[in-house]
Design brief:
With about 60 residues, this protein is mainly α. It has 3 helices and no strands.
Length: about 60
Amino acid sequence: MATFETTRPAPFGAVTTYRVLSAIDALRVAFIDWKNTRQTYAALSRLSDRELNDIGLSRADIERF
């Protein structure tokens, strides 16, 4: 039965390129999360105290998000 060598080193710069792209993607995800949090905060802030009470929140709860 023949065996084949399947491991070989990555091309020059491939690891660095992967790390840079991973860092850029992490920044993109962090920005999207920040934007969603800001939009949620704004939407909840526009609600009246009664509407917030209907969904089980208070004004103080908004600050925790």
